[in-house]
Amino acid sequence: MEVLTLLGDGMLLALQPLNLVMILIGVTVGLFIGAMPGLGSVNGVAILLPVTFLVPPASAIIFLAAIYYGAMYGGAISSVTLGIPGASTAVATTFDGRPLARQGRASFALVTAALASFVGGTVANILFTLFAPALASVALSFGPPEVFALMLLAFATFIGLGGDDIPKTIFSICLGLVLGAVGFDQISGAPRLVLFDNTGFLQGIGFLVLAIGVYGIGEMLWTIEQTRGEVTTTTPRMTVKGMASETKEAASRAWKGTTIGSFLGFFVGVLPAAGATPGSLMSYGVAKMVSRKPEDFGKGNPDGVAAPEAANNSASTGSMLPMLTLGIPGSPTTAILLGGMVIWGLVPGPRLFVDETEFVWGLIGSFYISNLVAVLINLAFIPLFVSMLRMPFTILAPMIFVLSIAGGYAATRDMFDVWLMVIFGLGAFFLRKFDYPLAPAVLAIVLGPIAEPTLRQSLLLSSGDPSIFFTRPVAGPITIVALVLIFLPVLRLLRRGRWGS
């Protein structure tokens, strides 16, 4: 009962005129920042951080958090309409969002993404409100063995993402792991896989640069090759009645992916240094794994849009939890928010809920309001976003290319990454021509840099004994489930090859 009273007081604080204006501006700006390839919530919050010195500390943090919320919603826009992820958190949305747009169902994909994002954010807000201290202690109990076991569980879904061609899937995973290992070794600091002694490789391969190359340039080249540039998509004009119908359809067809993404995304987001990108990719894999029609994923399955979108919004709220309760940022964006709080004299940690009760609950209250404002603004702008698809492909293709180049440069302001992005686009095009799945490679690039150091740290803790992954109470069950999920498809394939299908 006390929690509800505090939450009510927090919402009243968030609804004060200045704070409400900050939420409206922040969500709207964040929506368009998230939709712009190469920007995303990290750059958006960092760029607008100085603006917040003009308002009180509570309003400033509420404004930055609203940008974060808006950017999580906005990432789906360019993923669906152009096939270019607006941010790394929206990469998995392109897997089924773009095929839906090609089928003339871009508005349905965007409505599904908006509703899933709203549900994911709402579930995360409720869990945050009710279980913040308990979940913070759970997050602290996750050491390197537990994190590696969780990453192994995520890798177990990769087999399903690659279809029945397991050798090609394994090759795709290995390729992603190799690309993820480029740069300085996280444990020893030694440079690895630095080709031709080019110093550009020392900083590693940026995931966003790779994602834009693969799903922007690569997708454009594939479309041109398949259609010879003659692309026709039916994009009916949006009406209130049509949007209501699509909202009802999205609720009935995408509830499973939304549920998976809402809870799994929040749990992954709570883990320090995990963030929304692994959460969205893992949710996509799990949604496909439990689906009755996994073969529909990658061809326009609504659950393939709902799972990652629910997850990245849920994870964005989850990543706030370790920042506020432990002073440990749960994602790159919350690391910037943490810096902003320190600048304004707010010290994140266990004492924050006691010493700054009004601020904390005002911020939590703003989560609920920002989530509601974000879904309403997103739905209102869907007709505008869909109208982009009415452009002739002769105009749309050059625009995709320019946006990809600009997005790749904006991420790091380094021409080396732009050339790298073009190479990745060409590589993705040829991999698709030879029927190699791209999703496992992309997922491996995201999770490889998390899995490798935690594996090595775990073995250092156990003096090289791998039984540490089975004997610890949390890591053990997760590892066993992951191994079962990995070997079941392999055994099924071997049985089919031996005895026939």
What does this structure look like?
This protein has helices at residues 2-14, 17-35, 40-48, 57-81, 91-102, 106-140, 144-156, 158-161, 166-180, 207-227, 240-253, 255-270, 276-290, 302-318, 320-326, 332-343, 352-355, 357-387, 393-412, 415-433, 439-461, 468-471, 475-499, and strands at 183-184, 191-192. Strand 1 and strand 2 (191-192) form a beta hairpin. A two-stranded antiparallel ribbon has the order 1-2. It is 74% helix and 1% strand. The protein is globular, with a radius of gyration of 22 Å. The protein starts with a helix and ends with a helix. With 501 residues, the chain is mainly α. Helix 9 (166-180) crosses helix 21 and helix 12 (255-270) runs parallel beside helix 14 (302-318). It has one domain (2-499).
